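Researcher: Here's the sequence for the chain we discussed earlier.
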Amino acid sequence: MSHLLLLHTEARRRTARLRFAALMALAAPLAACTGADRIVTGSITPDDYRARHPIELHQGWARLEVFPEVRNGALDARTSAQVREFARAYRDHGSGEIALALPQGGRAGAEARASAPGLRRALAAGGARGPVRISYYQVADPLLAAPVRLSYTTITARLDSRCGQWPNDLASGSSTIGWENRQYWNFGCATQQMMATQVADPRDLVGPGAIAPPDSTMRGRAIDAVRKGEDPGTSWKTKNSNIGTLGD
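Model: Thanks. This is the structure I predict for it:
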């Protein structure tokens, strides 16, 4: 009886040793992962320049500085045209009130105060229907020409990053970075900056606007041409002149 008990105890010990060995084998790879020799990967520069230099929309200001002149009680034509164009842009993309900051002091201040009614009329002629808030700012040097500053709130597009940064050497003479055949960091930044500056409506960068109604006149002309068996396309006629005959 005691012999059988010894055999049973020995079998239990052998089973416990096998279980312990299996647990140690499973724990060995995990222990290696926590060691000091683990591999750490750094951030990878995105290949798409639109991801490196994204264009973001911000709530900003549209500004215009003019140097008005009052001639015979009327605003000069140049300033009037500029303000009308500014008002049309406000009508299409602006919101809130239009701020009109007039210089105070010196000849520029007197000229600006005299031009205020004309500026209001030019804003109304351009289609601006928002309220106009007039404020004043002090001129540091009365001898200098001081502008009238117009502004309104609108959505602006600008880059999240700055152009002209070169974190890596393009020649890469001291490293193997240039061997990866990847775009350099500043690639595409100027293109993104130009697009953000020149876009007429920054909201177009997010999605298209509504489809405009069709031109009924052009549609009727094309239908009439098809009925007559003619080409409905537009025919552009150009007349080229010989440069040698100019001035004869």
